[in-house]
């Protein structure tokens, strides 16, 4: 998938919905414990490129390890839609679970390996 596009998506049950602008230039294939166990593939967006359209009241937060990343899960179906955190330079970032994008075909994306297990 190339070029910047406006994409929509959400959780499995549909309570949480978003819209974002991204080119999906980098999609992670991370081997850290949470990405491995949940099958997560993230792309990273500036907060201005991500809009939560529905379901803010349904979100549940999950924090672990250094408690620096606020993982956001639908309280109904349990799908992790996105996370909020900060980059090493201190700027805010949204980590979008690419699997939650409407009509996405993961097999058609180029994945960037990330060695999160050994960080």
UniProtKB/TrEMBL annotation:
The keyword Metal-binding applies. SUPFAM superfamilies: Mss4-like. Residues 7-115 form the CENP-V/GFA domain. InterPro entries: CENP-V-like, CENP-V/GFA, Mss4-like_sf. Keywords: Metal-binding, Zinc. One of its GO terms (molecular function) is carbon-sulfur lyase activity. This is CENP-V/GFA domain-containing protein.
């Amino acid at each position: 998938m190339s070029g910047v596009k406006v994409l929509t998506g959400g959780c499995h049950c549909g309570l949480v919905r978003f819209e974002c602008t991204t080119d999906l230039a980098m999609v992670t294939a991370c081997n850290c414990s949470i990405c491995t166990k949940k099958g997560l593939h993230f792309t990273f967006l500036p907060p201005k490129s991500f809009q939560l359209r529905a379901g803010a009241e349904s979100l549940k937060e999950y924090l672990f390890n250094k408690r620096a990343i606020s993982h956001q899960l639908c309280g109904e179906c349990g799908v992790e839609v996105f996370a909020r955190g900060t980059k090493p330079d201190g700027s805010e970032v949204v980590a979008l679970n690419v699997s939650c994008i409407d009509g996405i075909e993961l097999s058609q994306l180029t994945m960037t390996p990330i060695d999160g297990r050994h960080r």
